[in-house]
Structures are given as C-alpha cells and as structure tokens.
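Re: that backbone. Tokens:
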C-alpha cells in the first residue's frame, strides 16, 4: 500500500473509531431521541448534588458535563457549574446557552444537577469545605470577566465549553480537567493564542480552537485538529479521544477541600 494511503487510512481510523465507541455505548434510539422534541426531554435532578439543606454549613462547588442534545451528543458535551457558600441552602448554577436573546451567560437556567435534555451529567470537579467560600468568590469574578458574554458559536467557539474553560483558567484551584470532546474548551482568539491550560496546571497554544496543543499535569499531552482532540493523560492514565472524551481510568476525583489559593 502506498505510504500516503496508509496515512490517510490511519487518520480515518483515528477519527471514526472514537465515534464507533460512542455509538456502541449509547446506540441511537428507534422512535425516540430527537423525534420526541426537546421540550419533552427529561430535565429532572440526577441526584448528584449534595442536599444543600443537609449541608447548609458546607460550601460546595461542582462542575458537570452532559452529552449535548440529539445527534450532537455523539460528538460534544455541554458543561455548567454550580456552587453554594457555607450558610446557603440553595445552589446557584451558571452555564452558557446559545439560544434566546441577550447575554449568553445564564444564571439558574435549570435544575442544578438536572439531566441535560435526557442526558445524565458527569461530575468533572467537586470541592467542599474549607477554602471553598474563597474559591466561589474567584469563580464569580471569573464569570463576570468572561470576554464572550454577548457572542456564541457552537463550533469552534466561543460556546458553553469556552465559558467553563475560562473559569478553570482563572481559578486553578478548581483543578478542572475538561474531556477531549468538550469542543470549544480550547477556543482562543487570534490576539491571544498562547496561555494557561484549562486546569491551570500547564500551558496551551491554540488558534481559534481549530489547531493547537496543550501540555499540563491534569490534561497530559493533547493535540487539537479542527476541534477534534487526541492525547494521553498520564495523571490518571487514559487516552483522550474525540466523541468518547476519555478511554481509561475515570478522571473524577473524590470530593476534596479546596486547594490552597495563591
């Protein structure tokens, strides 16, 4: 076989194998899914957020991500962040929503740990207790400083993943490692192509989220080609793949008190 054909075949395998794994894990539903209409998809609590009343004296931060609605869910995720200060008996939720009028950053748009149009979220980061109130102060500052509050593009960004990635960069104590299929997390404008990785534990170079590389303790080594991310996580060994996100050890760490804030 000609070397060029071998390279092309290898690239196709790299691109479509993760999609095949994603489809195998969640086959398309006959007569369901998008045909039901997004308004009828369940949005109830997934039972992942600690009872805020029972933990009234505890400050808590959680970051979630769930498969996006419909066929896009085989390629990308939608993330959001919730938090409560010590003394609060309810959570505050923030995420970016691409439809509707006005600023795209929405407060309390949905149930704190609700299903995202039928998709069960996963916990990407969680912190409780000492130091978390101060972390929440920094999170709110990061939300207020988000530079794309009036613009949204599902691909390559800025989008909901760009928003949560911005918080991760501004608040390294979150120790946030977003999955490879969080398309938009690597979006950086042309005037700012190099900077801190999402986790705050490394660095990245990226052109509009379409071409780049990230190196970090949490992310490992990750390459971005046209918004598709490939890499390897050495911290919690796993392959970082498009569609799948990660293949290997779970990246969710147990709940922890906030890391020391610089």
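Recovered sequence:
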């Amino acid at each position: 076989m000609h070397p060029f054909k071998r390279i092309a075949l290898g690239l196709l395998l790299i691109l479509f194998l993760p999609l095949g794994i994603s489809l195998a894990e969640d086959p398309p539903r006959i007569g369901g899914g998008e045909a039901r209409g997004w308004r009828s998809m369940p949005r109830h609590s997934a039972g992942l957020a600690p009872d805020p009343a029972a933990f009234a004296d505890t400050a808590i931060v959680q970051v979630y991500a769930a498969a996006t609605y419909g066929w896009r869910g085989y390629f990308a995720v939608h993330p959001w962040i919730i938090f409560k200060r010590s003394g609060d008996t309810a959570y505050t939720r923030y995420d970016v929503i691409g439809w509707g009028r006005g600023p795209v950053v929405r407060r309390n748009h949905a149930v704190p740990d609700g299903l995202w149009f039928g998709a069960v979220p996963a916990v990407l980061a969680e912190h409780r207790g000492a130091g978390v109130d101060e972390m929440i102060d920094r999170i709110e500052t990061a939300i207020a400083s988000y530079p794309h509050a009036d613009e949204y593009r599902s691909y390559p960004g800025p989008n909901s993943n760009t928003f949560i990635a911005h918080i991760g960069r501004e608040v390294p104590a979150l120790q946030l490692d977003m999955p490879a299929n969080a398309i938009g997390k690597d979006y950086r404008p042309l005037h700012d192509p190099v900077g801190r990785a999402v986790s705050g534990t490394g660095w990245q170079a990226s052109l509009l989220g379409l071409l780049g590389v990230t190196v970090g303790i949490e992310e490992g080594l990750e390459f971005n080609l046209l918004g598709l991310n490939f890499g390897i996580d050495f911290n919690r060994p796993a392959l970082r793949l498009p569609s799948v996100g990660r293949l290997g050890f779970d990246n969710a760490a147990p709940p922890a008190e906030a890391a020391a804030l610089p």
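The chain has one domain: 49-248. The longest strand covers residues 60-67.
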